[in-house]
Fold each of these.
Amino acid sequence: MEKRIAIIGAGIGGLTLANRLRDRAEVIVFEKARGVGGRMSTRHSEVFSFDHGAQFFTARNAEFKKYLLPSLGSGLIQEWKGKVITLAKDKKPGKRIWFEPHYVCCPGMNGLCKKLAEGIDVRLLCEVAPLKERKDGRWSLLDRDGKALGDFDLVISTAPVAQTVNFFSDFLTAEAGIRSEKLLACYSLMIGLSKPWPHKWIAAKVLGSPLEWIAVNSSKPFRNKAVTSLVVQTENDWAEKNVDGDQAQILEFLRRELESILQLELADADCILLHRWRYAMLDKAQDDDFREAHFFDPKLKLASVGDWCSRSRVEDVWLEANRLADEILRLE
């Protein structure tokens, strides 16, 4: 009987694992969203596109740099270049220097994940229910409606840690380190204007505000520069305090905050959207106890990898997914 592996989540971690394991087993990826990408997703609205999760990524590890070379050569990945500044209310813009290349996928940040998904059995709009039963060494998976998804020898979750703990909770030991990790929230405000961006800067770090980051998404390679697409992200601590707030009120508050920083009227913007990332960034308060380690129980045949064990950087998620794949392949 051919071995079967279920992977929960079609982001960079899950799809990297799927490609590493596909020659050793039948691999099925389950994704609750309508498309692949996870936090490397891209939202489209008419002529506007927004990379509303990960804005870019860097490459510091030699192995990851080597992995990127074909995509850099084909244009799937390109460097995002331009002027970056700091902004604060009632203050002049300050300089901000990027000391290393910042890369984006083209034509959207989900481009790399779309490439990785080619030839992989990805089941979209499929939310997996918590594990309840293991028979004859195989896990029986159900979706949230109770529909059977199949039996699997190994289940890997690349979902946020709280969701992964929920999937595995009946079987995790009290000592499992995965239980202690915490991810903080973030809001992404998306603004579309039907005119080109009039300034020279492409991104700004915001100081003294619930807003933390402003990206001119339309300034990235292979984006529509005839319009302006802005992605504005909040501080994690502010988002965590307001994660269950009224979403319409939060959108309006963030819009007014952005107006005061940019000194630009946005009430009549052609597109205004809000996305809540309930699990966005590893809690910095846990940095002292940080360990780059995935979770793998070879007896139970349960594993997990993702932002919770890698500081939420795209590069680190990719590296840790490969470390998990190495460990699984050594034991198979």
Amino acid sequence: MTGEPSHLLLLIVFAALSVALAVERFRPLRFTVPPYLSYLWMFLLAFIVAAWLSFVVAVWLLALFSFRTLREYFSLIDIRVQDRWGLWGAYLSIPFMIYLIQIDWYGLFIISIPVYAFLVVPFLVVLGGRDYRGTVLSIGAIDFGLFLFVYCLGHIGYLLLFSLWWATLLVLGVALCNVIDQLIAREGHPSWQLYLVKFAACAPVTVALSLALSPLTEIPQPHVTALGVLIPILVLVGNYTIMVIECDLGIAPARLEPGRGQIIHGTRSYLFAAPIVFHYIRYYLV
């Protein structure tokens, strides 16, 4: 990819977000930037690198991000000392999968984690020691984290390989849903009525964004409208699912810290949206 005039729009969004994050960091004003905007910044940084420098560099930046997210997850679950070989297998799955994205080997990418890594990790776990108690829980916890925080997030990198603007549509659509979700959030356990309200608020905005970006994405209007409706559904489903998982991991949204749930909380909205949007686009448009 090379920089084009249309990429200046992405650069402007990235610059505005960078200013907001810098102001919040030095705290001359009394406001807090939500955690998800920090990780939106990371995605936009990778997209700008892809547009102006190199897709290869950009996709390995995303690999580093997946590593950080997976490491935070492993720090929060109960892992036995003898599971260390399984952890190493999970970490090594990241460059394996990213390389497949880099060379555009879709057939192997799609089974890299759900088949090969899911078979290798259990083997490595049982090689780690002779205490069999907890083996099933360890394998399940490691494979689950690998699936969510490497495989699902990896689809953003593959979407970027197809088109810079397809990936931008996804991350900006998810970010808008997060902004609206925060504006109408309520205390206590959310009800299905609240989720309907959130969807009714998000869908028109994401559809409008999808239509506005249509000249850049070159996606036909029926499909871009469908994506605008699909993204908020996936964000709400993903947020609810990961919210329950966060509770089990002891992550408190009111006390988020790096390494203690901040990355997981900031990226949870992409975990369902990224793979499904990717496969929708690939099925209908590639």
Amino acid sequence: MKSILKGLGSVAIAGALATTAMAQTPTPTPAPTDSKQVQDMKKQLQDQGISVNYVETAQKGITLSGYVDTSYTYQFAGAGEYATSTKAALRQFDTYNNNFNVNAVKIALQKALPDKNEWAAGFRIDTIYGSDAKYLSDKTFPSTSLALEQAYVNFRAPVGNGIDFQFGKFVTLLGYEVIESPSNPNFSRGLLFTNAIPLTHTGLLAAYKVNSTFDFKFGIVDGWNNSQSTSPSELGYSDKTSFGKCLTGQFNLNSAGGNANIAQSFVYSPEGEPGVVGVDNGPVAVYDIWGNWKPLFLKDQNWTLGFNVDFGYNGASGVPAGGVPVGFTAPNDIYHDSNTWYGVALYSLYQFKSDDWKWLSVAGRAEYLHSDAAYLPKYGVPGLDTTASGTIVPWGSQDDYSYTATANFAIWDNLLTRVEYRFDDLHGGAQGTTGKADIQHEISLNAVYSF
């Protein structure tokens, strides 16, 4: 049977995955030492029967790990149409049509903090080479085929159960999904991950684990996906100060039985996010909540359900006074309008546990994402439109729907393979019209080798 499956797997590339890890550590314990991606990947690969044997370097305690992520993507009814400038950029990481892709060659070097609650220090560096890297660029590290995903030093102060700090560049606290492909329930990243939240921050983050039930984090960072802050006052907003920073935090609640958790996170930029959320001059905030649940009444806990909800607000998504485009005579409030976006995603993963079927798991995702009309919306088509009466208004709001089904096979050691079908339906258009709908189908074949 296994030899037959290997032959089939080489034709229909598919993958193994699991869901976000939920650690169960006795109290008292130090705060978590690894990033969300690291914890997820370790647990998920092990759940799929994939061994995680990180290489220890010549210097004791420093480990080397990573993966090689490759794929083939084919998009029906449009060659990458969801990633063009004229349509909503609904996709990241899987934007190519009829293409073989080297998505990522990831290398991570880490010295983790010890389990013992004591004065200690370490570091982590994550680099990504390949097509995924261009989506991880920022002001300090421009868009290239090589990206610095994370680079931070971490240290612990043994106060209470231990306060852990990360100082440098690290991944965001928001979102059910993560940058690392093998840590997600599906190969393609969802609408919320791509459009509703940031990916990385640079700054200082503190984490404290109260007990096995509660833990929280709080930090001050340069902003969204930026390693160099830019305050609105530097861009000509005379009514703004030069704070130019963003606040972020998370509160996580684990169930007593360890089979469920809910994480609530936020980012808040008092002076906006110039160049990230339009060319704005108002406050920007996002509230994010996600959770997992493994029903205990099912034998072997084969089924995992997850959800993610995001609500974002941009206080002024237009351009500053004096910067109104030449040729437009609309009132200034059009260029200083607020913008709101929100969405929900539902996840399901079933892992077969019997000896004959333990190599198979199936995952599904359903999403909805909305963005209000604005001159420079968080995502979607920017600009102005003219109604039938001749009134100049921002482009219409957009509603996006996406459905994804993924089949996952764990056949070879350390190799994750998967095949995926995704359907996207974008509704949006000019004011005063019935709007238009863009539909796209995608088939993806994916193989990831982790080490």
